[in-house]
Amino acid sequence: MSTNINFVPDDYIQSNESRRTNLMYLVLFGVVMAVFGGTFVTIRIRQRALDATEEQASKKLEQAEEAINQFEELQAKRKAMMKTALTTAELLEPVPRSVLLASLTNNLPARVSLLKLKLIQKEPKDLRTNPSGGAAATNKYAAHQAEQNVGEMEVSREKLLEMHISIEGIAPSDLELADYIKRLTSSSLLEMVALVESIEYKSKPDSGSSSEAGLLGKTFRRFKLTAILRNDVHLTSEDVKEIALSKGIGR
């Protein structure tokens, strides 16, 4: 029977095993550190790429905001220019008030006189009932568009102002009054001529009105009419001359 005799000391064997174990741990540690290092480098590269993308997006956003500001400035200048042009157009009245007065007086039937004339500019009813002109904006672009629309609407509203005319006078009877209403209705300057009231009135002897001086003690009709000046009227010099020289029937 043979016997195996190990001449290597046990301490030497344990020392070799410890070195191999330590070497394996070092290799594993190195692999783990390499993985961590690679992951860190990858994260840094991606972070730098995201930073560059974010910087480009910020620059584009600044450029867009600058473009919007320039657009808003141009819109404000355009609105101011439109208001200036509208004001100039309003100063150059398409129907001078002297011509309107001449048309109202020249169309008076016999023994009909005017006592009071009032001109008032008003907004059309559709603008008064819907001043906003649309729904509320839900974002910044929509808000900008709504503000632009409101600005244009204000200019359009000024352009669409209606000239309302209130006429008060006296007539011998309703026949002459009806004749006067008919003449005004057929006028090219007026539309929507309406009778507001016609009341019987007897002039008192102490009346101080020069228009009623010839009717002292007599019964007559005191009337009130309303009308609107046409917006689409564009008179030529010949039209103005014809209105100024025209006379009502029986005058």
Structure characterization notes:
The chain is an alpha+beta fold and 251 residues long. The protein folds into 2 domains: 10-78; 97-123 and 161-245, 2-Layer Sandwich (Alpha-Beta Plaits), CATH 3.30.70. It has 6 helices and 4 strands, in the order ααβααβαββα. It has helices at 10-91, 97-106, 125-129, 140-159, 174-185, 237-245, and strands at 113-122, 162-171, 190-202, 219-229. Strands 1-2-4-3 form a 4-stranded antiparallel sheet, covered by helices on one side. α1 (10-91) packs parallel to α4 and α2 (97-106) packs parallel to α6 (237-245). It is rod-shaped, with a radius of gyration of 47 Å. Mean pLDDT is 75; it is low at 133-138.
Topology:
Blueprint: H1 10-91, H2 97-106, E1 113-122, H3 125-129, H4 140-159, E2 162-171, H5 174-185, E3 190-202, E4 219-229, H6 237-245
Radius of gyration from CA coordinates: 47 Å
SSE class: alpha+beta
CATH superfamily label of the largest domain: Ribosomal protein S6/Translation elongation factor EF1B
Q: Mean pLDDT, rounded to whole units?
A: 75
The first-to-last residue Cα distance is 165 Å
Please tally the helical runs, counting DSSP H or I stretches of 4 or more residues. 6
Q: What's the overall geometry?
A: rod-shaped
Keywords:
251 residues, alpha+beta, Alpha-Beta Plaits, four-stranded antiparallel beta sheet, 6 helices, rod-shaped
Summarize the structure.
By secondary structure, the chain is of the alpha+beta class. The chain is 55% helix and 18% strand.
